[in-house]
Amino acid sequence: MPDEADLSSPGGPGGVVDLLGDAECWRLLASGGLGRLVYSSRYGPTALPVVYLVDEESVVLGTWDSALFDEDLRTGIAHAEYQVAVEVDQIDADAREGWIVLIRGAAHHLDGEAERAPFINAGLEPWIAGVPSHFIRVTPTSVGGFRTRQT
Amino acid sequence: MPDEADLSSPGGPGGVVDLLGDAECWRLLASGGLGRLVYSSRYGPTALPVVYLVDEESVVLGTWDSALFDEDLRTGIAHAEYQVAVEVDQIDADAREGWIVLIRGAAHHLDGEAERAPFINAGLEPWIAGVPSHFIRVTPTSVGGFRTRQT
């Protein structure tokens, strides 16, 4: 894919879009924060807010409680490696500018204590009292994104 | 499901979660704005930012250009009724408070002029120059959401 899509009409109104390379995607994700875990549940396509951080070239999510919104989030993805995506964006709708990064990969649940230890007290704990911390690592098989800007 | 999940530990630290009823979900969506179109592409789970408005009890999306990020967004969902979700959230990560609404339903592409007319100049046009406006209506078969707050 080209670095800049050829969809802008030169001289026309509006913005342009730049596709983001892998390095730029990782740079945008590096500070961690709020993203969305995207997956197919048995009820259909699902996206739920999650807090994430970047650990080497993977993303570790602290899930919101799985049973709250979509009963099968735990049963749906708790076993083995389920294909998921993590979407992170930062968009100024008034300015019509912003970026999105989407990574896709298998959801690896950090169930062992040794796996979990580095992420305890790393800011990924649930926001809801009484909900145990649960972490998911997504090592992406694809990374992509784009940025829109007005000219 | 209960109006308030029983996951809060009384007296413990942290927040609580309230499930949102349909009416509250629609109230939160009513002002329109930025959401995410969620679907399964042949590359896997996908979420892309979209601008939406509420038209009666459906959501009309102005899609970003479909070919930019995920080549099959158009071919993947342009035909007939594809199951999608629309996710809208407003979250203050520092305060650990916010809400999410997720609706699910079929994606109906507004291809006819009569269907499209009400949404021309309604704020759903693409942010990218040279990209034709394309609208998708999602009349939900399910509406749900929750809100977290600290106590």
What does this structure look like?
Two copies of one chain form a homodimer. With 151 residues, chain A is mainly beta. Chain A is 12% helix and 48% strand. Chain A contains three helices and seven strands; from the N terminus they run βαβββαββαβ. The first copy, chain A, has helices at 22-29, 72-77, 113-116, and strands at residues 15-20, 33-41, 44-55, 58-62, 82-92, 97-109, 135-150. Chain A is elongated and about 50 Å long. In chain A, 40% of the residues are buried. The model of chain A is unreliable at 1-12 and 67-76 (pLDDT under 50). Chains A and B meet through strand 1, strand 2, strand 3, strand 5 and strand 6 of A and strand 1, strand 2, strand 3, strand 5 and strand 6 of B.
Number of strands of chain A: 7
What's the average pLDDT of chain A?
82
N- to C-terminal distance of chain A: 22 Å
Largest beta sheet: strand ordering of chain A: 2-3-4-7-6-5
Gyration radius over CA of chain A: 17 Å
Q: What is the tally of helical segments of chain A? A: 3
Shape of chain A: elongated
What structural class do the secondary elements of chain A suggest?
mainly beta
**Assembly annotation:** homodimer
Q: In this structure, how is the largest beta sheet of chain A organized?
A: 6 strands, antiparallel, barrel
Tag the structure with descriptive keywords.
48% strand, mainly beta, homodimer, elongated, disordered N terminus, six-stranded antiparallel beta barrel, 151 residues
List the helices and strands and how they pair.
The structure is a homodimer of 151-residue chains.
Chain A: E1 15-20, H1 22-29, E2 33-41, E3 44-55, E4 58-62, H2 72-77, E5 82-92, E6 97-109, H3 113-116, E7 135-150
Antiparallel strand pairs in A: 1-7, 2-3, 2-5, 3-4, 4-7, 5-6, 6-7
